[in-house]
Structures are given as structure tokens and as C-alpha cells.
Write the C-alpha cells for this entry.
Amino acid sequence: MPSSRIPVFDDPDAYQAAVRAARDVRVMPRTKSRFNAELIQIDLHLLWMQHFRESLPRIAKALGDVDWVGIVFPFEGSGFRHRGIDSSGGEIVVEDLDAAHFLSLAPGHMGAMSLTPKDLAATSRALGGRELVPPRLAYIVRPTPEHMTRLLNLHRQAAQLAKSAPTVLARSQVARRWRTG
């Protein structure tokens, strides 16, 4: 059954343990200030969505999951560095299975979606205008502004629905609609 949850964290260790579709996640804040994070997780069976909001700049490391392909994207004004390459609004990082290293220079706000390789191809065609395949090496995609806006809006709407009406999101017909965009 589709579901959602919205844990809030003040401990980076508990936060890193909650991240899905990745192995060996490590989150290390870059300052000694108080850490706070909200992690909205939405499970639509064939599509996992995560919406991250973090109070501090941080370094994160994770290994990919062999059954899922992850894509990560910053929300407005919240870029990050992925394996030494800057990624900003309007870009999507398509993950591989090697260790991913993320560095944020400010408090962060980003989204992630994980799909099976087959579902990634179909969904990316609908949302991004081109088919994405599981990569041997991670890469950055720059969709058209219209496609990126659509992805960000759908992600925001799903997160808002998880917060305001989680029982609606849990309905199978609603979950099917979100998966098909």
C-alpha cells in the first residue's frame, strides 16, 4: 500500500539511517551548530520519493542500491557539489552504484526519486522529455526549463500532500496517478 512518513531529526546519525535507496549513508555537518533535518518519504511502490530539508551545510556519502536507480536534484537556491562538480537548480544528477559524495555549502533543500531501471526509462520520458538509463557513471542532466519545473512542482505537491493529507496519498488510485505524472 502506498505510504508516507515525515520524520524530523536533530541527530545526523539517525537522519542518515533513515535515507532510502542507498547503502552506507554518512552525513557529516560542516559546522558545529545545531543540526535539524526534515525527511519526507513517499512510497508509491514502484517510485520512492524523498524530500530533504537540512539546516546546516554538510558532506554526505552514499552507495547506490542495485535494485533502484536514484536521481537527485536541488531545489531553488540550494545547489550542491556532486563528486566535485557543481549542480544547481535546473539540473538532475542520475546516480550510479559507486560512492556518491555530496557537499552543500549552505543549508540544503533537495529532492530525490528512486525507481527500478525499467520504470526510470518510462518515467523520465514522460517527465523529462528523454529516456534515462541506469548509468555506469553518474551524470548530470539539464532538462528543458518546462520539464524541470514540472518535476519540481510534482515533487513539491507530493511532499505537501504527504504533510497535509497522507491518507489521500495512500490511496492506490492516487499513487498510480503520481507515478504516471
Remarks:
- The chain has one domain: 3-180.
- The longest strand covers residues 22-29.
